[in-house]
Amino acid sequence: MPKENGIFIQGNPEDVLVLGIESSCDETAVAVVRGGKEILSNEIFSQASLHAEHGGVVPELAGRSHLERILPLVQRALEKAGVEKEELGGIAVTNRPGLIGCLLVGLSVAKTLALSLGIPLIGVDHIQAHIHASFLADPGLKPPLVVLVASGGHTSLYSVEREGEGVLLGQTRDDAAGEALDKAAAMLGLGYPGGPAIEKAAQGGDPSALALPRGTLDKKSLDLSFSGLKTSLLYHLRGPGIQRPFPELSGEEQRDLAASFQEAVMDTLCTKLERAALLHPEAAISVGGGVAANKRLREKIAQSKILRGRRLAFPPLALCGDNAAMIAGLGHLLLSRGERSDLGLEARARSRAQI
Length: 355
Ligand code: KG4
Ligand code: ZN
Known about the structure:
By secondary structure, the chain is an alpha/beta fold. The chain has helices spanning about 50, 60-80, 100-115, 125-135, 175-185, 195-200, 225-240, 250-280, 295-305, 325-335; strands at about 15-20, 25-35, 40-45, 90-95, 120-125, 145-150, 155-160, 165-170, 285-290.
């Protein structure tokens, strides 16, 4: 006799299998997570090479690629998890924020699966899922938590008093940290995506070779800014106002400029995280989003005197960038609280917290 717990249609929540789908930007991802904690599969197809020649994500190309990849990826995620689709207890899908044409691909597949299997559907906020990755990675972690989410599209600080409900503390007023890294890498001739390319090129470089501004704005604000930093590098490379081509850089110049730019970005992020942490003295500290994979950022946070003694809950690299395990994990939590989405669930470009 199925257990009717008012949450899932049947079964013990700890055994319920949720399929997560992520297609908000340039990664198609599908995962199966048991009980909101145990990752059985976490399949990702990165479109990075598709967008590399354009130096950034082209929405039309991204949408088409999601369409081509998503169904085989669902199949692969189920196979890797050793699960039949009939065993699933819920479908979680990113429905915000993101590129509308991309989100719609994941949403269509999620709705079709939920309807045909007769199981609940839940729409998940991509940023809240990045925050949730810390709880997924470390089941012993409990709120309060202060989290920095830094990716190609977002850079924000959140406090979490209740799992699944990150409250926005501050955010970038212009470029996201990852976007600034991507643009700087293009200027330095380092390719796309820029974050990992800059991290690699920065090895052995001198982080004090070029003095760059820190976009920490005024002391009281928890907002950030990265456009001034980006413009400083641009002016350094080709002077203000003149449309000259970027100069050819020697290997040493490339290393030094990559190290200086990386240091300025990570310094800015770490300083703001420290300020947010000071306002939440009991909170553990975490990071999420693609930029959170950066080793210099992790090192700076770990070495911070202000953060000394805090529990650091950094998720593993596989859960930092876009992935569907975080979507399935948060989806399970929301479903277990009785939340559901109906088949009218819409794609939204922005997350509620940003409006
Ligand atoms: O979270 P994510 O995978 O996708 C978005 O939601 O945007 O983040 C992608 C961003 C890109 O800007 C990429 O350059 C950056 O994360 N990134 C990194 C590193 N790995 C990825 N930035 C710095 N260091 C890294 N190791
Ligand atoms: Zn992301």
